[in-house]
Design a protein that fits this description.
The chain is α+β, with helices and mostly antiparallel strands and 126 residues long. The protein has one domain (2-124): 60s Ribosomal Protein L30, Chain: A (2-Layer Sandwich), CATH 3.30.1330. Helices cover 24% and strands 29% of the residues. It is built from two helices and six strands; from the N terminus they run E-E-E-H-E-H-E-E. A six-stranded mixed β-sheet has the order 1-2-3-6-4-5, covered by helices on one side. Helix 1 (46-64) runs parallel beside helix 2 (85-95). The longest helix has 19 residues, at 46-64. The radius of gyration is 14 Å and the shape is globular.
Amino acid sequence: MKEIINTSAAPAAIGPYSQAVKAGGLLFVSGQIPLDPESGEFAAGGIEGQTHRCIKNLAAVLAAAGAGLEDVVKTTVFLSDMGNFAAMNGVYAQYFPTGCPARAAVEVARLPKDALVEIEAVAVLG
């Protein structure tokens, strides 16, 4: 059995998918790009600002499901340029200072709306 999670505190899906799906004690959060949910615009501040916004959007979807960043067990970070890895990683570390989730980070040819970064996650529900 699955439950669809949607919240107005994060950007609406820009395609035929859900912001997150609860299933089997896990929460699968779709990739979050750095759109401000109120303005619909990208966060300012380059890769750092965009990474902050991605994680804030991720946290909003987690909260809508009754979870938090501390419940995340796996993330995947998609970067439009691996040259931005160190800057992204510095921001990411602020949100996951201890007990960090498993993670993959990959460079991709292009992200939706030409974002610099996108982050997806899997969390345990408790």
